[in-house]
Specification:
The protein is α/β, with parallel strands linked by helices. It contains 5 helices and 10 strands. A 6-stranded mixed beta sheet has the order 1-2-3-5-7-8, with no helix packed on it. A two-stranded parallel sheet has the order 4-6. It has a two-stranded parallel ribbon with strand order 9-10.
Length: 234
């Protein structure tokens, strides 16, 4: 019986990352990798993991397809790391089933909205050095944020100094629309570009006309300098 029990325990224990602890929590598989000095996401996380805790480590990036093989994953905790970059396909394969995603207390300044497409999870983004701009505003429009942490999404940097240090929600509630500012900037840039091209065309036309006029004048001078037909006849 002891040997039979050992056989049952080996598959789950052997597939567990060496720096983590694998156990059962509420009848589901849980992989606990908290405070293990990890610098990247372990590659050998069991496929049937439902809960994954990677908090309080030194992870700096979430690469594409990092959790794609974890089709049963429901809760993912990446808080209190040093995450600066999140790839566009970081949560591909788990977005639909994920219920909770904690990215709070990292070094995230911006996040591509493509990374959150089809993400139904309750999202925690508090305590990051956010750059308040249109991209972040679009994330807030589309993401399902944890209401308890929304007020802690603060503008670390922003297009205008008056927004720095303020909760992003407060800035948006005041009527600020970062996307309209970007649109106006784009429109101005397009207007300047079009004006530049138009000016170049005008200059070209003027130069062309002047050049033709000079050639015409030279040709007329040349014709006047030629002996007339009447002079030859006499």
């Amino acid at each position: 019986q002891a040997f039979f029990c050992l056989l049952l325990c080996v598959p789950w224990g052997s597939s567990c990352p060496p720096s983590c602890q694998c156990t059962e929590w509420a009848g589901a598989k849980a992989v606990l990798c908290s405070s293990r000095h990890l610098e990247e996401i372990p590659k050998d996380i069991p496929k049937d993991a439902v809960f994954l805790k990677l908090d309080a480590n030194s992870i700096t990036r979430i690469p594409s397809n990092a959790f794609r093989h974890l089709s049963h994953l429901e809760e993912l905790d990446l808080s209190r790391n040093a995450i600066e970059k999140i790839d566009r396909a970081a949560f591909k394969g788990v977005a639909a089933g994920l219920r909770t995603l904690d990215l709070s207390s990292n070094r995230i300044r911006s996040i591509p909205k493509e990374a959150l497409l089809a993400l139904n999870a309750k999202l925690r983004l508090a305590n990051n050095p956010w750059h308040c701009e249109c991209a972040l505003q679009e994330v807030l429009w589309e993401a399902r944020l944890d209401p308890d942490s929304v007020q802690d999404i603060t503008c670390h940097t922003a297009p205008r100094e008056e927004y720095v240090g303020k909760p992003l929600l407060q800035v948006l509630d005041a009527g600020v629309n970062f996307c309209s500012v970007r649109q106006r900037t784009t429109d101005v840039a397009m207007f300047i570009t079009m004006f530049g091209w138009f000016a170049m065309v005008i200059v070209y036309v003027i130069c062309y006309v002047r050049h033709n006029r000079e050639d015409t004048c030279k040709h007329m001078e040349y014709l006047k300098s030629l002996p007339s037909t009447q002079g030859h006849a006499e």
